[in-house]
C-alpha cells in the first residue's frame, strides 16, 4: 500500500468540501491507524489541520496520546503548530509530499524537527510528489476563477 496515496485521498476530501486540500495518515506496523484532512472552515477551528485530525484519530484508535513507532504521511509540510503536535505525540518519522515555503516548519521556512533547543528530533523524508503540489495548484486556481465570476 502506498501511504502517500492514502494521504492524497484525504486531501481530495478536503478539496471536495472547499477546504485547502491537505491530507494526512498515520501508520503503525504497516497499518493506517489515523486519518485526517483539513477542516478549518467546516469546523470553524484554527487547529483543524489535517495533521491534528490524524493525530487525534490515531490517539483515539490506540487509546493513547503517545504515538511511539508511528509514521505520518502528509501531503504538505506541517506548519509550526502541527510540527509541535507531531513532536509532542512522539511520532517517529514523517514523509512530506510538498514543501510549504511560507510557513513550513520542517525545513522550508523554519525547522522545528531538528532543533537542539527542543531536545527532540524527527526523521523527516521528502517525497516531493507532484500530485501533492498539483492538488494545491488546482484548488487555488479554481478559487481565483470563482472570484472573477
Automatic annotation (TrEMBL):
<comment type="subunit">
    <text>Homodimer.</text>
</comment>
<feature type="active site" description="Proton donor">
    <location>
        <position position="51"/>
    </location>
</feature>
<dbReference type="InterPro" id="IPR002125">
    <property type="entry name" value="CMP_dCMP_dom"/>
</dbReference>
<dbReference type="Pfam" id="PF14437">
    <property type="entry name" value="MafB19-deam"/>
</dbReference>
<feature type="domain" description="CMP/dCMP-type deaminase">
    <location>
        <begin position="1"/>
        <end position="117"/>
    </location>
</feature>
<protein>
    <recommendedName>
        <fullName>tRNA-specific adenosine deaminase</fullName>
        <ecNumber>3.5.4.33</ecNumber>
    </recommendedName>
</protein>
<keyword id="KW-0479">Metal-binding</keyword>
<dbReference type="InterPro" id="IPR028883">
    <property type="entry name" value="tRNA_aden_deaminase"/>
</dbReference>
<keyword id="KW-0819">tRNA processing</keyword>
<feature type="binding site">
    <location>
        <position position="82"/>
    </location>
    <ligand>
        <name>Zn(2+)</name>
    </ligand>
</feature>
<dbReference type="GO" id="GO:0052717">
    <property type="term" value="F:tRNA-specific adenosine-34 deaminase activity"/>
</dbReference>
<dbReference type="InterPro" id="IPR016192">
    <property type="entry name" value="APOBEC/CMP_deaminase_Zn-bd"/>
</dbReference>
<dbReference type="InterPro" id="IPR016193">
    <property type="entry name" value="Cytidine_deaminase-like"/>
</dbReference>
<feature type="binding site">
    <location>
        <position position="79"/>
    </location>
    <ligand>
        <name>Zn(2+)</name>
    </ligand>
</feature>
<keyword id="KW-0378">Hydrolase</keyword>
<dbReference type="GO" id="GO:0008270">
    <property type="term" value="F:zinc ion binding"/>
</dbReference>
<dbReference type="GO" id="GO:0002100">
    <property type="term" value="P:tRNA wobble adenosine to inosine editing"/>
</dbReference>
<comment type="function">
    <text>Catalyzes the deamination of adenosine to inosine at the wobble position 34 of tRNA(Arg2).</text>
</comment>
<dbReference type="InterPro" id="IPR058535">
    <property type="entry name" value="MafB19-deam"/>
</dbReference>
<comment type="similarity">
    <text>Belongs to the cytidine and deoxycytidylate deaminase family. ADAT2 subfamily.</text>
</comment>
<keyword id="KW-0862">Zinc</keyword>
<feature type="binding site">
    <location>
        <position position="49"/>
    </location>
    <ligand>
        <name>Zn(2+)</name>
    </ligand>
</feature>
Amino acid at each position: 500500500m502506498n501511504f502517500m496515496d492514502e494521504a492524497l485521498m484525504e486531501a481530495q476530501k478536503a478539496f471536495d468540501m472547499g477546504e485547502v486540500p491537505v491530507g494526512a495518515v498515520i501508520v503503525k506496523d504497516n497499518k493506517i491507524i489515523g486519518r485526517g484532512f483539513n477542516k478549518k472552515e467546516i469546523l470553524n477551528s484554527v487547529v483543524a489541520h489535517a495533521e491534528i485530525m490524524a493525530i487525534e484519530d490515531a490517539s483515539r484508535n490506540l487509546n493513547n496520546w503517545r504515538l511511539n513507532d508511528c509514521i505520518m504521511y502528509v501531503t504538505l509540510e506541517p506548519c509550526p503548530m502541527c510540527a509541535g503536535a507531531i513532536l509532542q505525540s512522539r511520532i517517529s518519522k514523517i514523509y512530506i509530499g510538498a514543501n510549504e515555503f511560507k510557513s513550513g516548519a520542517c525545513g522550508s521556512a523554519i525547522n522545528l524537527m531538528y532543533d537542539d533547543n527542543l531536545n527532540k528530533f524527527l526523521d523527516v523524508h521528502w517525497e516531493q510528489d507532484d500530485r501533492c503540489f498539483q492538488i494545491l495548484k488546482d484548488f487555488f486556481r479554481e478559487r481565483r476563477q470563482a472570484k472573477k465570476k
